[in-house]
Amino acid sequence: MSIRPCTICKKNFDSFKRRPDEIFCDDCYEQGCAKLKGKQEEKSAGQREVLAQQNALEDAINEVKLTTTPDYPNLKIDNVMGVITSECVFGMNLFRDMFAAVRDAVGGRSSASQKVLRDAKITCLYELKREAHELGADGVIGIDLDYSEISGGGKSMLFLVASGTAVKFKKESV
């Protein structure tokens, strides 16, 4: 037996067979359920709003232009905002290490290692875009990617640093 006060009328009732969020008596049950449904709808609307904000932020980050060249075609630089970097460290797991060792011995391409390299590049460039966006930059020019391997104790990690210059482009006058 679990006697609790109803959250609506404050009368004590046995809440033994009720869910933890159903803290209302039989007399107030319909009203309480309607109240819970309204709260869930508010929560869902709030979650949709947060998701929309996250999507807008992702879109804005993805609008940041990247290039390895010292300028961007058809755009003039208005303001140089400074050097930015992004660092990523990826573990080459035990199986990838084993298959890479086999490929090392017999020759050929290691698709497992190539996937780690590709994932590292994609992640690092995205982080560079995010860093530029946080500064208010429109793009990053002169990007350089530096790969290194950190190994020891039978383990290896891939270390990638992406660096470039964050810039603001001149707005086109129409």
SSE topology sketch:
Blueprint: E1 3-5, E2 12-14, H1 29-62, E3 65-66, E4 77-92, H2 94-106, H3 111-135, E5 139-152, E6 155-169
Parallel strand pairs: 3-5
Antiparallel strand pairs: 1-2, 4-6, 5-6
Number of helices: 3
Low-confidence stretches: none
Helical amount among residues, as a percent range? 40-55%
Could you spell the SSE succession in H and E letters? EEHEEHHEE
Mean pLDDT over the full residue set: 83
The geometry reads as elongated
What can be said about the biggest beta sheet?
4 strands, mixed
Radius of gyration: 28 Å
Task: Give an overview in words.
- There is one protein chain.
- This protein has 174 residues and is α+β, with helices and mostly antiparallel strands.
- The chain is 41% helix and 30% strand.
- The chain is built from 3 helices and 6 strands, in the order ββαββααββ.
- The strands form 2 sheets. The chain has a 4-stranded mixed β-sheet.
- It is elongated and about 75 Å long.
- The termini are far apart.
- The mean pLDDT is 83.
Spell out the key features of this protein.
174 residues; alpha+beta; two-stranded antiparallel ribbon
In short:
It is built from three helices and six strands.
